[in-house]
Structure formats: C-alpha cells, structure tokens
C-alpha cells in the first residue's frame, strides 16, 4: 500500500540521529534554503489584502497563503508542485524542524511525481492535490507519530486532496494551498487521537485522479529526500515565465522598445500550460500571462515586485506591446522546462534580435547565484524590519506570527476605517 510504504519512509527519515534518522548534509542544506526562501516570500506578502481575508484559516493555512500569493516560492519540477509553501508552514505550525520538513517534502514530491504531468495538464493544481498529504506527513513527523498513525493521517487527508488550475491569477490559488495545509494538520491530529482510516484510500485516490507512476519505485534508501531537488524562482511570477523573462534579458540592452514592431515566441505547448491569461488586467493575472511577461521583460530592468502590480500591467507601454506578442507552440512533453524557448524581436528598419534559452537561472541544474539569492531575500524583506539572520528554524514561527499578525491587524483597521 502506498500510504504504508510512504509512512515507513517518512518515519525513518524524520527520526532524530539517535534513532537512525537518515537525512544527508545535502538534504538538510535544502531544508534550510527552503525555509529561508519560503519565509522571505511570506514576509513579502504582508501587505497583500488576502492576508487579512484569510484570517478564518488556521495558522498554518494562513502562512501557506502568505508564502504562495506572490508566486515567488520554490517548485519541484517532476511533480509540478510548490513543495515548500506547503511543507514549511505545516512543519513550523506543529513545532517541527528540518527533518520533519524533509519527511513531508519527500512524501509530497513522490505523490506529486506519481500523479505526473498528465494530472497537472488535465487542469488539477498539483500543489494542492498532493499538498494535503504532504502537510499531513510533516505534521505527523513533528508530532512523533509512528508509521501506522502516519499512514492513517495520509488516508485522512485524501478528502482534501483537490484544487484546480482555473484558480490561477486569483486569490483562490493561494487559498487552495492554505486549505490543503490546514486539512493535512487536521488529518495528523485526528490520527494522533486514534481516528481510523483505511490506508488503501490513498491507492484508490491516486488511481481515480490519474496517477502515472509507481510511488514505491521512488523510495530507494539512497535517493535524496526530495528527488531532483527544487527550482528557485528569481522573478515573482509563475515558473513557466522564468525562462522567457530570462531569455529576453539576454538581448534587452540591444533593443529600443519604442522601435519594437513584432515579437515571436516559440516554445513547446506543455511549457505554457499554466499561462491562462492572454490579456491580463491585474497584477495577479500578469503572473500567468506569457504576453505580459515578454512585454514587461523588455520594459523593466528587473522583473521584480513592481512589475506585477495592477498599475504595471495597465501601463500604456505594456498595453502597446502585449498585442505584438505572437506565440508559436510546438509539440513537447516533460513539463514547464521541456525543450527550449526561442524569441525573435522585430524592430523598425527590418532589424531582428533573436535569443534562445534552455534553462533559466534557478533551475535545479542551474542553481541561482549567491547574488541572485541575496537580492531575492533582500527584496522580500525590504521594509519589514526582519533580517535574513532571523530566517532560521528556531525563530521562524515567531517571525511569521509577529509579521503577519501585525499586517492583518493593520489591514483590518484600515478596512474598518474605510467603511
């Protein structure tokens, strides 16, 4: 049974060293980097209206919403899931640490990979379909549940394993993640209190939602806790936009934007699956628009937070360029980084500027530089009063509580005064 196999793996991995826990130094380094990345994204979201609106969720769910809403959080490429936006909040809210994060992240990665690209491309939001069980595994590890209880927790999380991509570009995308995290913690608490469930429910659910591969095949003892690592975003938008933005960046200095007449983008069809907004009207929609991302990459020195505001999407220069973007889709498979992207920018006088890119910065096999990571953290923390050294496991929960609680109180007061 899948739940039983995953539960034994997670319990063994999450055990402290004295009881034979097996994370490697590389696993633990990934956990620390994931914590810093996720906390930075959550703190960057402190002014987002959804922080106050999500106060009816549990603590972990609110933290998950915060870490996901700006779409700057890491991504596991084989499963197309935002693992840390689920597993960091679930771990911190239950008093866990890096081993508990890795136990849940490994479960989520393996379930998500078993669901496969066909699950995501069919319209499911894989972060939320696999996320409830990932959160349950984090919480079960942090609470010290044994393998039988952990398997029960995974089965109890099945009813919450849903969510669709149509939510992209709206608050519902991050809220779905919060729902999944809260459900995972609830499932682990129920298992700890003795609730029963049939672990075979996970096998049945995986079959019903179109699982492609054998989860057990990814449980080799020598495999990394999170197989294939995590991709780190260097731009705060959908991962499908990281490559075209980086590609434009390679030729941007050669182009006078006022002279641009036509832009042709060639990319495999699977790489644009999440990009559902072709004429975006808001900053959130702009994070899922290939046309806007290409226009913005030509206009902005750096596609940061200021690029993905409502005002930025509505600026006249962007509205002029967006209709000039032509997208030519080829056949492809393998997800958001299949093949490569090619861009041709035609300008006045018949001059053509072309670029081609296979891997964006931050891809698992093209890790971000220290400078890129430092810039990201600094941008996220700017004006928050939080320093990078506070983004550590012992301090993390308190940092989130204070930062997001202050933001919620402020936004609630402003809203009340406005009424």
Short description:
This protein has about 425 residues and is of the alpha+beta class.
Question: How would you describe this structure to a colleague?
Answer:
The N and C termini lie far apart (55 Å). The protein folds into two domains: 2-218, 2-methylcitrate dehydratase PrpD, CATH 1.10.4100; 239-357, 60s Ribosomal Protein L30, Chain: A (2-Layer Sandwich). The chain is built from 17 helices and four strands. It has helices at residues 2-14, 25-44, 49-53, 59-69, 83-93, 98-121, 126-142, 147-156, 171-192, 200-208, 242-249, 283-286, 290-299, 310-314, 316-321, 370-381, 393-418, and strands at 260-268, 325-330, 341-347, 351-357. Residues 410-419 have low confidence and may be disordered. The chain is α+β, with helices and mostly antiparallel strands. It comes from Leekyejoonella antrihumi. Residues 64-202 form the MmgE/PrpD N-terminal domain.
How large a portion of the residues is in β-strands, by DSSP E? 5-15%
Uncertain runs are: 410-419
Backbone structural class: alpha+beta
- The shape, in one word, is globular
Separation of termini? 55 Å
Assigned CATH architecture of the largest domain: Orthogonal Bundle
- Report the helical percentage: 40-55%
Organism: Leekyejoonella antrihumi
Pfam family, one: MmgE_PrpD_C
Domain MmgE/PrpD C-terminal: 235-386
Family: Belongs to the PrpD family.
């Amino acid at each position: 049974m899948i739940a039983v196999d995953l539960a034994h793996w997670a319990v063994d991995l999450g055990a402290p060293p004295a009881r034979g826990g097996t994370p490697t130094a590389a696993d633990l380094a990934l956990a620390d980097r994931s914590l810093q990345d996720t906390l930075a994204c959550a703190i960057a979201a402190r002014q987002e209206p959804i922080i106050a609106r999500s106060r009816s969720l549990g603590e972990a769910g609110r933290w998950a919403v915060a870490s996901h809403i700006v779409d700057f959080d890491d991504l596991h490429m084989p499963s197309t899931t935002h693992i840390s936006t689920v597993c960091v909040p679930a771990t911190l809210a239950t008093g866990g640490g890096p081993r508990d994060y890795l136990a849940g992240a490994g479960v989520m990665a393996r379930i998500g990979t078993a669901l496969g690209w066909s699950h995501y491309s069919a319209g499911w939001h894989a972060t939320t379909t696999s996320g409830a069980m990932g959160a349950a595994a984090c919480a079960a590890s942090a609470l010290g549940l044994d393998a039988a209880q952990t398997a029960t927790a995974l089965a109890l999380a099945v009813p919450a394993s849903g969510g669709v991509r149509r939510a992209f570009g709206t608050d519902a995308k991050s809220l779905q993640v919060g729902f999944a995290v809260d459900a995972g913690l609830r499932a682990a608490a129920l298992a700890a209190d003795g609730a029963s469930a049939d672990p075979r429910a996970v096998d049945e659910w995986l079959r019903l939602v179109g699982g492609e591969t054998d989860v057990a095949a990814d449980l080799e003892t020598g495999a990394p806790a999170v197989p294939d690592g995590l991709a780190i975003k260097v731009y705060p938008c959908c991962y499908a936009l990281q490559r075209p933005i980086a590609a434009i960046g390679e030729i941007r200095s050669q182009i006078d934007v006022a002279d641009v007449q036509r832009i042709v983008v060639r990319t495999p069809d699977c790489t644009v699956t999440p990009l559902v907004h072709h004429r975006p009207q808001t900053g959130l929609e702009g994070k899922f628009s290939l046309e806007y991302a290409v226009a913005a990459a030509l206009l902005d020195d750096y596609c940061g937070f200021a690029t993905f505001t409502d005002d930025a999407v509505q600026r006249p220069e962007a509205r002029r360029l967006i209709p000039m973007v032509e997208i030519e889709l080829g056949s492809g498979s393998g997800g958001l980084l299949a093949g490569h992207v090619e861009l041709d920018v035609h300008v006045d006088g018949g001059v053509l500027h072309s670029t081609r890119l296979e891997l964006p910065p931050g891809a698992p096999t093209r890790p971000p530089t220290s400078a890129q990571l430092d810039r990201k953290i600094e941008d996220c923390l700017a004006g928050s009063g939080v320093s990078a050294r506070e983004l550590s496991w012992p301090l993390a929960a308190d940092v989130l509580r204070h930062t997001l609680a202050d933001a919620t109180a402020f936004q609630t007061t402003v809203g009340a005064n406005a009424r």
